[in-house]
Amino acid sequence: MAESFKVTPWEVSGLSGETYEKLIKKFGVKKIDGPLIQKILNTAGSLHPFISLNLFYAERDLGELLDDYRKGNKFYLYTGRGPSGKMHIGHLMPFIFTKWLQEAYGVDLVIQLTDDEKYLVKNLSRKEIDGYVEDNILDILSLGFDPKHTHILVDSKQSGLMYNYAVDVAKHITVSTIKAVFGVKDSDNIGKMFFPSMQIVPSFIIPALTGRKMRCLIPYAIDQDPYFRVARDVIPKLGYYKPSAIISKFLPSLQGDSGKMSSSVESSAIFLSDDDKTVRRKLMKYAFSGGRDTVEEQRKHGANPDIDFAFNAYMMFEADAKKVRQVYDDYKSGRMLSGEMKELAAAKISEKLADMRAMKERIKGNLAPYMFDPSKFSQ
Ligand code: TRP
Question: Which of 114, 116, 228 has most ligand 1 atoms within 8 Å of its beta carbon, as the pocket-test mutant?
């Protein structure tokens, strides 16, 4: 039967509420359930709103990794970004969450920039992509990552470090797997077939360099699952643990269409470079609302915060989990109106973007301490 949605690393369309449930079955991931949430709370010491509000909703082998952690075995984190445009606030979501994990568990983090992927998949020149690499790294780091424990890998720049490992991975992946899992067609370039090996490498690079067994936890949005499904088949053959995963839905996009926010249309997203006025105008003018048509109805029935852009944007940037819960409850119950929700979001986003811009200025031209340095991990 034909499906009405498409979710692959290179194309996302036709999403709806039920899609996420269907993807759990289709991809073979597990829902994050009550006992696991308790385990996260016990080991992390607190619970991030992205978990309690079900934005991170699925996992692979997370319980096993946390059991090991409890026995004193540290894991490391790995996530990434494909630098194909300037960043909007939706792009920050996995990084905000990963930073929380990094601090809660006191672990190292590898961030990969897949500039090679974007060169192969998109119609962009190397020069354009190079510009995004630098700017995206600054945007990500302006969330305040600790340079001692944050290690950035840019595929095109650190290819010497990664290439042989990628070949080890590639040796264990067949053409038919790549065709089935990624939808690669005969008319596609052959780079698309090899590239997944590069995205798999960081999920074992630290144990590979140190020679010590160590688990890896990868936070990602569900469209990236194909990479890590293949990774879990291949990596044990190379002698490492299967990577664990914590998997998110997408944030609703500014205009509420059922895809990811897009970097290519100015009015489709709030960009990190938008000034206060623009942020407010975009929220007021475009933000998809989970509210009701009239004030009376809203007071009576309440809004649906889960699909409301302003609520989701606010939640992303509000560090205080209790406040997030309060706003969620107030909005859902009808105590709070959509206009108020938008004002609150505008203020929060502007405050956070101003902080980030200041941080970006401070670290510009000084990225060396953040770049992946194999000598820190050599045996
Ligand atoms: N392919 C991802 C993208 O296009 C980038 C990426 C690389 C990534 N490694 C990752 C995302 C690990 C999540 C986890 O955005």
Answer: 114
